[in-house]
Structures are given as C-alpha cells and as structure tokens.
C-alpha cells in the first residue's frame, strides 16, 4: 500500500526543486501517495497566514513531510515560517549531514560529518526584549539587582534558556543516530568555559547521556571557537557533532561550506514522532520560475526521508544516482559547472531527469 506523505512545495524556487525531488522518489519505485499542502508567501492572500492550520494537520496526520523552502514574509507576525513549523510540531532535532561528493567544488575531498542541532531552546527561543521598552527597563533593573552586574540602559535583551531535559533529548538523538548509522563518535560543542550555567549545563547533561553509550560510541567535547578552526583545518577529525541551537545554526552552515555550499546540503527536522525533510537553502526568490537552480539539496533531503521510512535500498540507490550525475559533471546545473556561465549547464528538471536515468 502507498504510504501517505505530506508534500509542501514551498514558494520561490520551492516548487521547482520539490517537483524534482518528488519525481526522483517516485522513480525509485517506492509507492508514495503525496498529500500536497500549502504554505508560504504565495498563500497569505488565500488563508490570511503563510502557515495554514490544514498544513500542520496534514503533517501531524502523516507524520512525515517533504518540504520546499518557504520565504519568510515581512510584517506577518512570523519571525520565520520554518521556525514556526518546527515549534508547532516540536521538531527538536535538526539533522544536517555534510558529505563531499566527487565533482562538487570544495576545499576538501572526503568530508563526512553530521551536524545535530537542538531546535527549540537557546537564544533562538524567541524571548527578546526591545531596547527602550518599559518591560526591558524593568528587566534590566531586576537583573542588575539579582546579579550585581551593570547592564547598559540602552540594551536590548535576548534570553538564552538551555535545559537538562532539552539537552538530554538532543544528545540522545545524536547517540541513537550514531548507533543506527554506524558512526563512531559524538562531539558535544559549547562554550562552557564562559557560559557555565547554560553551556556548562549542556555538557553536564550530555555527559550523563554519553555514559549510557560507553564502549559503543566515543564521546568528546569541544569549545565552539576551537572547533571552528579545527573543522576548517581537518574536518576528517570529526563524525557526529551535537550542538545547542545557535552554535548549531552557525556550524551547520560552516560545514555546508566545507562540502560545496547550499546547493548540495540536505536537512531534516525530527520530533518524537514527526519528521520534516528539507534542503538547508532558502527560496532564492531571484531565481523563481527559471528552472535553473540546483535540485541536489532537495533530492538528498528525499534520500534522508527514504532512509527514515525504512526504504534503505531506495535511499542508497537514489544517493548513488545523484553522486554519479554530479561526478560526471555533464547533466548538472550552472552552479556545479567549473564556469557558472557554461552554456552546457542543464535546467533543474533536466538534472532530475539525469538522476532518474542513473537509477
Ligand atoms: P537562499 O538560500 O534562498 O539564497 C541564498 C543564495 O544561495 C541564492 O541567491 C542562490 O545564489 C543560492 N542558492 C540557494 N539555493 C540554491 C540552489 N538550490 N541552487 C543554486 N543556488 C542556490 O537564502 P536567502 O536569500 O537568505 O533567503 C531567501 C528566503 O528564503 C528568505 O525569505 C528566507 O527567510 C527563506 N529561507 C527559507 C529556508 C527554509 O525554507 N528552510 C531556509 C533559509 C532561508
């Protein structure tokens, strides 16, 4: 029986790359009944919101979604539609594998890292106080009284909550991922020497979880600044990286850069029961409708989805087909050509055709 999965085409280049990914998944032979759900800038006029409740309901019902990028419209009350989806569905773990494929221009040849980012806490929790507002002045006064430290009165304040429970579940996710995917090491990353009660707590909770995996998966800790340097010097020294929200956001882009950039970087967001698969890149509005951008990141996100569905063979087959097309450097989009103006570059849909032919 076909498995029902929510497909959110997204906006901007979203519909182009998600159609490419959908066609590739269908061509693997895995039977999927796609339930199309709307979201993004293009549906605000119709629903009065970029994130209709029916779309969230569809994901809750089907438990798995493949999602195209969504533009965050200015002035709708949403900081980001993507962050709103993660919050609404409690998708606490963001997974970003960063792997070099032969044929993609990058500084390193054999990077194979996985970044696991906590998705719900930290400075990203959205608890912010605007400079000059009465409540901000009140908060500054109370913090000064409690901490006996001075804060400039013209400050804005962002709050950084990091909890034991939130940390334990993300570290457990990282270790379980490592076990399932035959990885060797989890590195917890933080800045515990400076932020003892948040980042220090992150390490303490991580160590407790790590003990449960002793003898099976190695555990180590790195400071965020040190690992930034070590990663650009020797990315091969790391395996699975587990980070709080903000460091995870920054480091996953750094790691995407190590393997050739946004066009080839897939991602996924996991909750207890729900998983949403999406490319790291955004809606690249300037390329909308041109059938020009690279569909690889979205297709590789679908590879992760197939793996999650237990369709290991189809997942491996699709990844191999993408790798083959990229390595041949022939039927690839402009950004994968040595010269971005190369007239032999193919379109988004033609690259998907080539992947399907290579299956
Ligand atoms: P972006 O990723 O959309 O674009 C940055 C640049 O990267 C583009 O100009 C383009 O040159 C390149 N690029 C991105 N995807 C590409 C692809 N598949 N092939 C080739 N080149 C590609 O980032 P942005 O311009 O900062 O954001 C545009 C919109 O997307 C914003 O509204 C932002 O909020 C949203 N966004 C959404 C997501 C998501 O849906 N998960 C993620 C990031 C940004």
Automatic annotation (TrEMBL):
One of its GO terms (biological process) is isocitrate metabolic process. GO terms for molecular function: isocitrate dehydrogenase (NAD+) activity; magnesium ion binding; NAD binding. Residues 4-355 form the Isopropylmalate dehydrogenase-like domain. Keywords: Oxidoreductase. PROSITE patterns: IDH_IMDH. Pfam families: Iso_dh. SUPFAM superfamilies: Isocitrate/Isopropylmalate dehydrogenase-like. It comes from the Bacteria. Belongs to the isocitrate and isopropylmalate dehydrogenases family. PANTHER family: DECARBOXYLATING DEHYDROGENASES-ISOCITRATE, ISOPROPYLMALATE, TARTRATE, ISOCITRATE DEHYDROGENASE [NAD] SUBUNIT ALPHA, MITOCHONDRIAL. This is Isocitrate dehydrogenase. The lineage of its organism: Bacteria, Bacillati, Saganbacteria.
